[in-house]
Amino acid sequence: MKRIMITGALGQIGCDLVTKLRQIYGNEAVLATDIRMTDNDACQSGPFKILDVTNNTSFYEIASEHRADTIIHLAALLSAKAEHDPALAWRLNMGGLLSGLETARELSCQFFTPSSIAAFGSDTPKKGTPQNTLQRPHTMYGVSKVAGELLCDYYFYKYGVDTRGLRFPGLISHSAPPGGGTTDYAVDIYRAAVSAGRYTSYIKEGTFLDMMYMPDAVRSIITLMEADSTKLKNRNAFNVTAMSVDPETIAASIRRHIPDFVLRYEVDPIRQKIAEEWPDSIDTTASREEWGFDVQYDLDHMTDDMVSKLTQKLQTGQTKIS
Ligand code: VAH
Hints:
The chain has 322 residues and is an alpha/beta fold. It has 12 helices and 16 strands. The protein has 2 domains: 4-168 and 213-239, 3-Layer(aba) Sandwich (Rossmann fold), CATH 3.40.50; 171-211 and 242-278 and 296-315, Alpha-Beta Complex (UDP-galactose 4-epimerase, domain 1), CATH 3.90.25. The chain has helices spanning 12-25, 41-44, 56-65, 79-84, 86-107, 140-159, 185-196, 214-225, 247-254, 269-277, 285-291, 299-316, and strands spanning 4-7, 30-34, 48-50, 70-73, 110-112, 115-116, 127-129, 163-164, 166-168, 170-172, 198-201, 209-213, 238-239, 243-245, 262-265, 281-282. Strands 3-2-1-4-5-8 form a 6-stranded parallel beta sheet, with helices on both faces. A 3-stranded parallel beta sheet has the order 6-9-13. The two termini are 36 Å apart. Bound molecules: (3R)-3-hydroxy-L-norvaline. (3R)-3-hydroxy-L-norvaline binds at residues 78-79, 116-118, 141, 168-170, 181-183.
């Protein structure tokens, strides 16, 4: 990776990934793009372009002008929003992916796009979910993730495009608010705990889901993209996770800092149904063996950092964090 173009740069992963890649490769080497511009650091600290990823011509022209050798394609509609408008989700998630893959093919770029544990369905083994197993999701987001994994495989085998991807769990970050996912509760709970000392969860107690702290997710993308291509057997869909938690386990970790933290429940049936489709805990053997995946944050280490960073933001009035 030398000259990188990122789509969806203002999203939850994009905000942290742009910052990290610019630290490593230099501001000018990392072009951030998104459908809109904001005062976010991704727009201010280096090159930024407005891009509708479903516009194939724009995607190609912007990548070519940047002389990109790597495309990191993050723009997508997440699970809860996708269930609200499945047709839009299909157009954006698959149309944008196809534009990105065609651009990567024509410009000989390396290509990364995330899959998700949402690529598994209710018939998939829930504990220790294997790298290769049944994938029959009943959400539009999950369908687009399975189709995306297969499309990226196709571009590798048909055209030799160096496509790579990770099946991410829920990702937790203090930098960017979540954007329409089902696991967003695991971000909101920290923001609410620090700002108000209480949170009402839309996901039921006992609903265990895989999660990962954003610094580990960003490091995983960079490690995978720099790995030896000849060693990647599962290249577009590596299972990665750091922990399996439910609202109660996160609350217990938060109470190590905020002893009076109160957790209540108002279950959202739509997002609860989505969450119950997903694994409790996935197996990461292939990632560890094929490209050296590891994590630096367990639940308590993540909580320590989240509470510290969000408290700093609250005290300095940096952002409205609740
Ligand atoms: C979502 N955060 O909730 C995303 C993620 C595994 C969940 O793909 O839709």
